[in-house]
Amino acid sequence: MAKRVGVEVSIAIAEAVKLAQAEIIAAYPITPQTHIVEHLSEIVADGELDAEFIPVESEHAALSTCCGSVAAGARTYTATSSQGLMLMSEVLYVASGMRLPIVMTVANRALSAPISIWNDHQDIMSQRDCGWIQTFAENGQEAVDLTIHAFKVAEDKKVSLPMIVNIDGFTLSHVIEPIELPDQEDVDRYLPPFRPKYRLDPKRPISMGPVGIPEVYTESRMAHDQAIKNAKRWIIKAWDEFEEIFGRRYNPIEQYMAEDAEILLVTMGSISETAMTAVDKMRDDGKKVGLLRIRLWRPFPSIEFRKAAKGAKALAVVDRTLPPGAASGPVASELRNVFYKVPGAPKTFGFIAGLGGRDVTVERFEEIVDKAEFYSKKRPKELYEVIGVREK
Amino acid sequence: MIPEFEKFKGFSAKRLPKEEGLSPGHRGCQGCGEVLALRMVMKALGKDVIVCSATGCMEIITSPYPQSAWNVPWIHVAFENAAAVASGVESALKVLKRKGKLPKKHVDVIAVGGDGATGDIGLQWISGAFERGHDMVYVCLDNEAYMNTGVQRSGCTPYGAMTTTSPPGKKSIGQVTWKKNIPQIMVAHNIPYVATASPAYYLDLMNKVKKAALVKGPAYVHIYSPCPTGWGSRGDKSIEYARLAVETKVFPLYEVIEGNYIISRKITKPKPVSDYLKGQRRFRHLTEENIDYIQKRVDEEYEKILKLSEIN
To answer: Is the ipTM of this complex over 0.90?
Structure first.
């Protein structure tokens, strides 16, 4: 029986990678990802995991090394944050375009300048379109479960795409939580060995990463788009199987008090837990408020959103990035597209909060809901609003 | 001495491997000295090899999908990171063999890049891979500029050369800096094997590549690769220029085995550098004074290598 232990979330993620029996870990240190890879290097040094830990000289090299190792047929893991993810950016697109099933944890952190080690979602949103499957964890248990799930989905021959599990830097990566670490037997039952369809093998030579001339480039990009959209089915199926073995259920969008809600908050990551507390409080006050938490960010669960938001008057979308000069935050933009000209669709209001480590408290969520309620009667002047700005 | 070298007798003109890792029919320019050198590299390595290419001429001409000139497993990820990709491949083979998932048979892991991919944009990735000690060979095919993008200068462009970003003008000679010494940078990593080679001395080239593959740990081979398109030289003169570069001491051939320098071809009666420079459009604008300076510096640089070889 799996044990529930008090453990730092980063350590638990490292243990999940061990349970998944990763064979290659190539990583470069960056706060707040460091504890994950430090613990993995210990696990490998102690012989608890038969893997190669490759202490590369940069994040770009980390992901490049991962491309080589997964192409050669080894189960491959890396982790990064913020500036590191930005340095990887070039290879992120190559890895997904080449359909290389790498699993990566991104401990989400703000971007420079000014330099900030604290949490928001600017890093991952800058890589929104990198073609990886992307999920978000809200707590330590989810971080563990989604890591194991990621190997299963990414390496599935029907998917064969790299996958990012997002965890909030510090607010998730550095907290100690009660976490149930699954038994090795159960993980082995859930996660089959990595048997890629294609790999670099002198017995059966193939060429990987060729030139895409104009006659094939469009079709190649379309195939990638189709692959990630089709992946949704296998992502959900892998969650079904996860529930059967481990008893915990995951969905592309997680709903909380959403059924009869007039106003729906939309969040991602660890602030969702605060948002639930805020919803409880507002429900006690008699407000018909609910919450939709985005678990699956790429492929975007458009149909699931239309279903989940049915009947609501307004969506109060919380973005944790401020893209300068954009019409609005990426999540709000996405949802405006999803609901554009859908009969009876809720109005979408964009809020930006929790940048560079600023807390998003229960009171802030109340403020957001109040504003959304007001704006649903009187149209706002702007497409988004920044919440929690200092007055002095 | 490297124990792996003892059994290796060397290639001979009569005993050249029949296998071709690289097929004909690729899209290389006429007279390309680089692809010729690459063919020799692949011949020396045989079948049990995985090649990781940097972006560049050799990658472009060999892999326009759905065609491929590669008869061996080949991967291209990006421009600067071939050494990191090779690190990943090598480590994967290591762990998969250890876990019994792959047969124990040795497979050579090779990274290939041009002078830009090696000495400029990719230097860090190679440095990292060499410092970590991966069992791999890095082959630099040095044609002395960014040819794939249209002949822009690199750190390996020779002094005085005209490129599209080092044009000679009223206030400039062309390339104003001396060629960056990449093999010496690699030697500084304390790797067991570093060599320079030229397609004009094909047996020497193949022997060096084979030795680089045999040695345990990182090895580096820097191959001089004439580029008629970029140099403005005749396509049928590529091998001649490759030979002249050696005979004029412009490109000395040597090995550095566990830190010891061995000159492969001692040049006792050097030809003047002007013999090498003439006939190449990239040097056409140089004055006699310029050529005198180049001659002086070439002699000095050669002396340095010679002195290093005398330390042994």
So the answer is: yes
